[in-house]
Specification:
It contains two helices and five strands; from the N terminus they run E-H-E-E-E-E-H. By secondary structure, the protein is an alpha+beta fold. A five-stranded antiparallel sheet has the order 1-3-4-5-2. It starts with a strand and ends with a helix.
């Protein structure tokens, strides 16, 4: 699996991605850091092959916001498997804007787990409430 790589062209046109922590700067229509990381998480799920009774979950993330991206811009998202063990996959990612400038980078670890384990854990956690 090491060396597996995918590149996606994505237009960031979801108004829900707007950085709105500072109302004064909201009208700049900048994409939030959390939205960019969410995009990486989502696309990395597609990158990791699993069997029908397994899935992969994010167990850690490390992100670096480099420069702003506006809502409506098209970006290129490159993801590649940098390392993997039996169940953990280290994925490195970068987002490049329309001008070819790197705007965001991240490293995440996805873990392959059984769907039955997740169901069992969910039932145990909700039973305690």
């Amino acid at each position: 699996m090491s060396g597996l790589e995918r590149t996606y062209e994505v237009t960031l046109n979801d108004p829900g991605m707007v950085w709105d922590e500072d109302r004064e700067l909201h009208d700049l229509n900048l994409v939030s850091t959390s939205s960019l990381l969410d995009l990486i998480h989502s696309l990395s799920y597609k990158l990791v092959p699993t069997s029908p009774d397994e899935t992969s979950v994010v167990v850690s993330s490390n992100a670096r916001y480099i420069s702003p991206v506006r809502i409506g811009q098209q970006v290129r998202v490159r993801l590649f498997v940098a390392n993997h063990t039996d169940k953990n996959i280290l994925i490195k990612a970068e987002i490049v804007d329309e001008d070819g400038e790197k705007t965001f980078e991240a490293e995440i670890v996805r873990r392959i787990v059984s769907k039955a384990w997740i169901r069992r854990l969910a039932v145990e956690k909700t039973a305690k409430v």
